[in-house]
Design a protein that fits this description.
Elements: H1 2-13, E1 24-30, H2 48-51, E2 59-63, H3 71-76, H4 81-86, E3 92-96, H5 113-129, E4 133-137, H6 158-169, E5 173-174, H7 176-187, E6 196-199, E7 211-217, H8 219-235
Parallel strand pairs: 1-2, 1-3, 3-4, 4-5
Antiparallel strand pairs: 6-7
Helix pairs in contact: 5-6
Length: about 250
C-alpha cells in the first residue's frame, strides 16, 4: 500500500495526470411508474427515484417523467421540448411509455399503435439529432396473476411495438416488461404485494383508508425495478455501465 501511494505521489510530482471521465447526463422520460413523487403520494415511489443513487459522481440523472403521461401527451404538453433544448452530445435518454398510451377512454393520452410507434421514433430521432443516445424501455408490468398464480400480460401489443421500433432503428432496448414479469413470477402473488403500494387502513397517514395499487411501487418495489434496469444497462454494455456503483439495500 505504501509503495502504491509513493508511486502516485511521484507521478504527481513529475506532472503526470490521470484522465478524468467525462460527465454524462441521463434523462428519464416516461410515466408515473418512473416519476418522482410528491410527498403526499408517499410511500408510492417511481423507479427513477432510487435509480439516482447507483451512480458515481460523473453521472447526473434528470428525471422528467410525469404521472399520467403517454408518449402522446408528453409531447403535446411540451414536456419533451425542454429536454430537446438542453440535450448535449453523449447524453442518454431513457424512454418508457405505454401504460397510458393504451387508455382508450382517455383521449388526451391514448395513442393508436401507429401513433405510439411514430411518437417513439420522434423521441429517438430528436435525441440522435443532438448526438444523444436514446434507450427504449418497454412498459414495466402491473401486478396481475391468473387463477393458477401465473403473471399475465397487461399492456397488450404495446411492449411488442417498443421492441419493433428498437429493432427497426437499432436502438438499445431494455425489456422491463419481461424482466419485471419474471421478478413478480419468482416472488409470487402474495409476496409481490410488498413491491407495490399496498397499505392497510391506518398504516400510513397519506392513505388512511388503505391502498391496493397494482401499478405503482413501494420503495422496495421501485428499487427492485431500478436494479432490473441497471442489470440491463450492464448486459447492453453501454458506456454508462462503467459508472454504476453498488449501494447496499438498507435494512428497515
Amino acid at each position: 500500500m505504501k509503495k502504491i501511494s509513493l508511486l502516485v505521489s511521484l507521478l504527481a510530482i513529475m506532472g503526470f495526470t490521470f484522465p478524468q471521465k467525462k460527465k454524462i447526463k441521463v434523462w428519464l422520460i416516461g410515466d408515473s411508474t418512473m416519476a418522482v413523487k410528491e410527498i403526499k403520494a408517499y410511500p408510492e415511489t417511481g423507479w427513477g427515484m432510487p435509480f439516482v443513487n447507483f451512480w458515481d459522481s460523473t453521472v447526473t440523472i434528470d428525471n422528467r417523467a410525469r404521472n399520467g403521461r403517454s408518449s402522446k401527451s408528453f409531447i403535446a404538453e411540451k414536456l419533451w421540448q425542454p429536454v430537446i433544448d438542453n440535450l448535449q452530445e453523449g447524453d442518454y435518454v431513457f424512454i418508457q411509455f405505454g401504460h397510458n398510451d393504451e387508455s382508450k377512454d382517455k383521449g388526451e393520452r391514448y395513442s393508436t399503435p401507429d401513433e405510439f410507434k411514430a411518437n417513439l421514433l420522434r423521441y429517438v430521432t430528436d435525441s440522435r439529432s443532438k448526438k444523444a443516445i436514446p434507450v427504449l424501455i418497454t412498459p414495466v408490468t402491473r401486478r396481475k396473476f391468473d387463477e393458477s398464480g401465473n403473471i399475465t400480460e397487461t399492456h397488450g401489443e404495446y411492449p411488442a411495438l417498443v421492441k419493433q421500433v428498437a429493432a427497426e432503428n437499432k436502438v438499445p432496448l431494455i425489456d422491463l416488461d419481461e424482466k419485471s414479469k419474471a421478478l413478480l413470477q419468482q416472488v409470487g402473488p402474495e409476496a409481490s404485494k410488498y413491491l407495490f403500494n399496498y397499505l392497510s387502513p391506518g398504516e400510513h397517514p397519506n392513505y388512511p383508508d388503505g391502498k391496493q395499487d397494482d401499478t405503482h411501487f413501494s420503495e422496495l418495489g421501485a428499487r427492485r425495478m431500478a436494479e432490473l434496469v441497471l442489470a440491463e444497462i450492464r448486459n447492453l454494455k453501454l458506456e454508462l455501465a462503467e459508472r454504476i456503483i453498488v449501494v447496499p439495500l438498507k435494512n428497515k
